[in-house]
User: What shape does this take?
Amino acid sequence: MTRLFALLAALALPVAAQAAAVVPPIPYETRTLANGLKVFWAVDRTTPNVTVQVWYGVGAKDDPQGRSGFAHLFEHLMFKSTRNMPPEFLDRLTEDVGGFNNASTSDDYTEYHEVVPAGHLERLLWAEAERMGSLVVDDANFQSERSVVKEELRQRVLADPYGRLLAWAIPETSFTLHPYRRSAIGSIEDLDAATLDDVRAFHATYYRPDNAALIVVGNFDPARLYAWSEAYFGPLAAPKSPLPRVVAKEPARRGPRTVTAYAPNVPLPAVAVTWLAPNAAHPDAAALDVADAILSSGESSRLFQSLVYDEQVAASIFSDADLRQQPGLFMVGAVLATGKTADQGEAALREQAARLRDGPVSAAELAEAKNELVAQALRDRETIDDRASSIGYALMVEGDAARANDAIARLQAVTAADIQRVARLYLADDRRAVIRYLAEDKRPAGVAAPSPGKPSLPVTARAPAPSSGAVAALAPPEQRTPPPPIGAPIAALLPRPAERTLANGLRVIVARSTELPLVSARLTVRAGGAADTSGKAGLADLTASLLTQGAGGRSATQVAQAIEALGAQIEAGAGWDGSAVSVSVMSDKLKPALGILADVVQRPAFAPEELERLRQRSLDGLQVALQEPASLAGFVTADAVFAGGPYGHVLGGTPTSLMKIGRDDVVALHRAYYRPDNAVLVLAGDIDPEAGFALAQEAFGGWAKPISALPLPPPFPPAAGPRVIAIDLPGAGQAAVTVALPAIPRSDPRYYSGVVANNLLGGGYSSRLNQEVRIKRGLSYGAGSSLDARRFAGPFSASAQTKNESAAEVADLILAEIMRLRSEVAAEPELAARKAVLTGGFGRTVGATSGLAGYLSALALQDIALSEIGRYEASVAAVDPAAVQAFAEAVLDPAKATVVVVGDAKVFAEKLKERFPQLEVIPAASLDLDSPTLR
Assistant: This one.
């Protein structure tokens, strides 16, 4: 492979000639309050928003013995009551004003973050101090959130074919003593064992100012920030008791180890190989990060080229320098291709580890990896919340916030010799741990299944001492301290796109939106899944995906090498109405990136061998998707709602249809639709309009417009009648429930009424569906809805995943909420909050280069004027309660809805049939996704 990379380096754009892009530092300041709380802040006058984050030095490694998943469970409880905030009040302060909130738990930390309009900063500081100082932990909150966490575990771990591998098998095999051995999400058994006293002790032990950092980034006055921090957090006393810390040390491995894990609904075997690695602050960390990029970043990476492309032993690959606060892991892994064995996968992965040990990486590989890491660092500077997260991560995991600003310098200093040295030091073959992951029916007779998520050996995390303080309680309404007043609003500065049409008919749109040296380029053609020929579902998506697999005289590998040498990312695929190729690149490398994009779009090779490779990868991916309840529900819903029509099939194709697609089909679709007068090029980011138009002319001006007319759009028959369908997926860890029906096209004058109605029903945490299904009943990790307005009438759908036993109940709840939307006029305060969710989310979407490029491309694809970007907020605001109800009455009729439930039918079919006597039960093994009847 060394000679191959040398050849690719010679053919690719010269790396040495590229000017190095500069990643601007985060200009933060910091102070520490008397109680030990660290405060960090960075001002950004270009945004109307502010992010507030609080990071606590406690994570899954600190879970008490026998309580795996506890830190994560506690994270959920932090969103309930405080002395002065009733349950879900934080959502009133964030989501209802156009912001959002969320949190995450890792092995080493738990972080809480919000983004809100800048005038709400003081209120969020008050709220975070409330959560730190007076959290209410009562039995009602505890029971509710424990149920939600169990549904999250079922969704992320049990329903995902590879969830058990990632959450349980890898950490339990890789560590023998350290608490990193346990999963952050825990197990059902340990979650059930947790008590109210455990929760209160945990809060008293770890949620204290001297174990936390407050990080604020955005548009604010630093003097006011510091005064507010003192006012709200300063009175919180740090306990005198010392913080318990994990002192366990993972022993060095004394030899190789192999473990085989089994799980239901595993369509393809998987293999992972892990080694113990140093902590994230270790001098060798940067070299391991670069090695990780060389192994698996992009299609020119070593693992992809060897396992996926050349040997075709794997359907997908991964590697990870999983470096943590305490010594972590380095891993490589693969989901194997159809017909390949775990032996083959392990041998291929170990061979690539040996390559790193046995010889230096090439100069081209090293430069490419560094460019990719620099570009990703730039993307991580694009939003205020990403910048704050960079500070928090560096502080909590690496021990010093300043490392957020010198990380690139450390990466740039890595040499080929460093990579070989760390590979020899850490990735020794005799210190490997191999995890083989197979389907349950491969388990040998007599081999018992271990308790899921319960490591068989003890771990040594110290348990928190029982809480001795007063138990906080929600104060009566008249005794609660209200949140501070809202500050003056700051107007958003929306980008102003400019456009020009080239002589060949190509529409070019340029929008300058950032000073960061990043540009997103997106070329869209008006031909998507709706243009698939009969019986050949997936043709448009396969065609788009093949564009990057060889073009302009470059092979597939050379295209990947050329684009990744720039630190750029390229993606291609089809939607229902259009197909797109997108490139994200540093602005100083935009010109060569556009040259590659032009080759990919205009001059694809469509080599037969690449078609076969991509077809097989797509088939392997389908095998996985067909075992995922939510994915399978989506496939079935499209078929059922739009049966026999251009939207009535699987967008990416089926095992049958993909086998029918030949090179002639791909060439014919490309010839018919990929033409400049049927395309739009959008450039968004650090680019002026005139410069963008000039680059577009240079790259695409020679694209000839065909003489032939564009094909006529396909006929759209009336939508199919409603059905109730259960797909029986035996052993599924959860059931996916979907209610769907045809809605409206994007051109419909009721579009914004539909957008607001959908958001009221299922858009966001505080939507009606999520309130009923998750918050009130704990039946799902999340319930929501979507309105997909396309060129022709697209679908409305509402969905949730739940334990199999609750599938019928959840279907009833969804239908009842749709009916309530039709029968009741929404109150103005509720509607105002949901409108704020829409406008706040819109602003954040167009504030990122990729989001802005996608939004402008969607407008152009649907023939909507670009001025819509400036009218969005007013259009949403103009929707009144009567318009929402009128839309629901006219469009969202439950009697016309199709209900699809995918899961273990023996658990829920009887209850579902009681509610829906017309229920059809179809075994997943006999499901025909190519037939309008599904049989």
